[in-house]
Specification:
The chain has about 325 residues and is an all-alpha fold. The chain contains 15 helices and no strands.
């Protein structure tokens, strides 16, 4: 039983050491990143006057639950709209209530499994936290994959929009043509923008919604370019062509940086996984030798300090290999 407990604790600590730096970085990027603050401030200034004149909702509000009572209750929960926006960005098929129910069910199943296997309460709690962390990480990974797919499709979509405008179409009709000729997922987002404008919403508000749905710098460049042209006038086709060229160059540089930093990322993975593999092989060779780490109080203290230092090291290495373009 002690051996199983040790490996469960070791695995849970490994998952926690991986998820905590990711969470800390995401918090910093969303709330304290200088570039994010600058972009948000610019877009807020551009949309502030427009939003003052919008008093009614043109589109139907996204429901948090299929049940009216539960939907009204969830709307009172602080931060629930941000979570719903996160699910929308990840293109998650379930609504907020269904997602919360699924998460609670998975956590309870892991807790029941821990109690059925007669694990200690601490190990069972860590299993439940690890299950919850894995679910959040999956949604975040799904969101990142979708945003990356949209960013790769954006330059071609802008080129198609430019050609449509050069052939005589206005921006709205060019947007419709691009949405119908492009592939998902960018086609779905452009279709939403066209539908909002077609229902009577202003271009500024519709583009603002696009930037809110997709947390991407490339999309923000596209939105800002359209809004600046809408305010100052000029040749929108030429502006979009230059925007597409800029996005392609950014993606090309990002690819080069990713190739050059591949060695550092592989080294970071090796250094992060090696202690756990070494502990596993030492346990196979000499179980009595390594069992002192959880049997002796000093060993437990050393194990805690080591895991803490590993957590700091993993976070530091993840920051070193992430180069902003």
């Amino acid at each position: 039983m002690m051996d199983v407990t040790y490996w469960l604790i070791l695995g849970a600590c490994g998952v926690a050491s991986f998820l905590m730096p990711v969470g800390l970085y995401e918090v910093w990027r969303v709330y304290w990143s200088p570039r994010q603050k600058l972009l948000d401030q610019r877009m807020h200034q551009m949309f502030m006057n427009e939003q003052r004149h919008v008093h009614t909702e043109i589109l139907q509000k996204r429901a948090l639950s299929r049940f009216g009572v539960l939907d009204r209750y969830l709307n009172r929960v602080p931060g629930i709209q941000g979570f719903d926006r996160f699910l929308l960005q990840a293109d998650w098929p379930l609504d907020v209530s269904q997602t919360l129910f699924l998460g609670v069910a998975l956590v309870m199943v892991s807790g029941v499994a821990g109690m059925a296997l007669h694990f200690p309460a601490l190990v069972t709690g860590m299993m439940m936290l690890a299950t919850l962390g894995c679910g959040i990480y999956y949604l975040k990974h799904r969101c990142v994959q979708r945003i990356e797919a949209i960013e790769k499709q954006l330059p071609d979509a802008l080129d198609l929009m430019v050609r449509a405008q050069q052939s005589g179409h206005a921006f709205i009709s060019a947007l419709q043509i691009t949405a119908s000729e492009s592939r998902a997922p960018i086609a779905l987002e452009l279709r939403k923008v066209f539908d909002e404008i077609n229902l009577g919403m202003s271009v500024q508000a519709a583009m603002n919604h696009l930037a809110a749905r997709i947390d991407s710098k490339e999309i923000r460049y596209f939105v800002v370019a359209v809004l600046i042209q809408n305010e100052t006038g000029g040749n929108l086709a030429d502006v979009l062509r230059k925007t597409a060229t800029l996005i392609r160059e950014r993606q090309k540089i990002a690819g080069v940086v990713r190739v050059l930093s591949a060695e550092g990322r592989i080294s970071a993975w090796i250094l992060s996984v090696m202690p756990f593999l070494l502990a596993f092989f030492l346990y196979l060779i000499n179980p009595e030798f390594i069992s002192a780490l959880w049997k002796d109080p000093m060993g437990v203290a050393m194990l805690g300090v080591s895991l803490g230092l590993m957590l700091v090291g993993v976070f530091w290495m993840s920051r070193l290999v992430q180069i902003k373009v």
